[in-house]
Design brief:
Radius of gyration: 18 Å
CATH topology of the largest domain: Double-stranded beta-helix
Largest sheet: 7 strands, mixed
Shape: globular
Order of helices and strands: EHEHEEEEEHHEEEEHHEEEE
Strand content: 15-25%
Bound molecules: fe (ii) ion
Number of helices: 6
Structural class: alpha+beta
Helix content: 25-40%
Number of strands: 15
Length: about 270
């Protein structure tokens, strides 16, 4: 399927903020709050990967408190196609198929507030297009449905199951691990098609029919939304995303050299 690229994307040039670190941090924080994401274009990638990683971490620490990705508490995560992973539930960072619009860590007790991605190597196959969709645009379309109010109430007030991906399971010997919670909260959405649908396929009694209907209506609103922004993350693009108010995704890619770095963060306490 051909994806039409959007024109209006929130991009700021890194060079406009060279030697103005505080201004850059303020701008990123403001955009995370008001826009939901910001792309910092032309961020410097050094020849030394470790040095690039440590500068990326230093900047991210000014935006939020970095949090670990797995039980080993790895802070900087490499996003690369991992054809050797045999997990039943692979994370999107491990494969190269399309990643439909979702929020990260929707299965955890406290999904991170923000995350940043730095593109070291973009896919050179025409794939790997990024998608962004804001919660406010989802709610507008959901509320416009005949039974929108009723559906929103179910999504806010009942607990939905999310299956925990294998790499994040606390107890590896257990067959499946679930986390339960509402899909919508105040200024927050937790959404990913496969962690919900695989949970239901494992045990259909985890949800009522009304919940499944509400989920299906929301899925339709999310995956067929005309407000979805589509763009390429270029090499040297550093994107910060508000993981509570903004969904993200990417199209399939075949270039195995595509390489991004990710850091997850929670809001700094004042
Ligand atoms: Fe993701």
């Amino acid at each position: 399927m051909e994806v039409k690229l959007s024109k209006l994307i929130n991009i700021i040039p890194f060079k406009d903020y060279s030697n103005k670190r505080n201004k850059l941090v303020d701008k990123i924080l403001l955009d995370l709050k008001l826009v939901g994401y910001v792309v910092v274009r032309g961020y410097e990638i050094l020849k030394d990967l470790e040095e690039t990683k440590s500068q990326f971490l230093e900047l991210s620490k000014l935006i939020g408190d970095p949090v670990g990705h797995d039980l080993d508490n790895k802070i900087i995560w490499d996003i690369k196609s991992n054809s050797t992973s045999k997990s039943f539930i692979k994370t999107y960072s491990e494969h190269s198929h399309e990643a439909e619009l979702h929020t990260d860590s929707q299965y955890s007790n406290y999904p991170e507030d923000f995350f940043s991605l730095l593109t070291l190597k973009k896919a050179n196959c025409g794939g790997g297009i990024s998608y962004i969709l804001k919660l406010e645009d989802i709610l507008t379309d959901l509320r416009a449905l005949d039974n929108g109010k009723e559906l929103e109430k179910i999504l806010r007030e009942t607990n939905f199951p999310f299956i925990v991906p294998n790499v994040f399971k606390k107890n590896k010997s257990e067959n499946h691990e679930f986390n339960f919670g509402p899909i919508l909260r105040d200024n927050e959405i937790r959404f990913r098609v496969d962690t919900f649908e695989k949970a239901i396929n494992c045990d259909s009694s985890l949800c009522t029919m009304q919940q499944i209907d509400a989920y299906k209506a929301l899925k339709n609103v999310v995956l067929n939304n005309t407000k979805t922004i589509t763009f390429y993350l270029e090499e040297g693009d550093l994107i910060f995303i508000n993981n509570k108010t903004t969904l993200h995704g990417r199209s399939m890619f075949t270039d195995e050299n595509r390489h991004l770095l990710r850091i997850r963060m929670n809001k700094l306490t004042e």
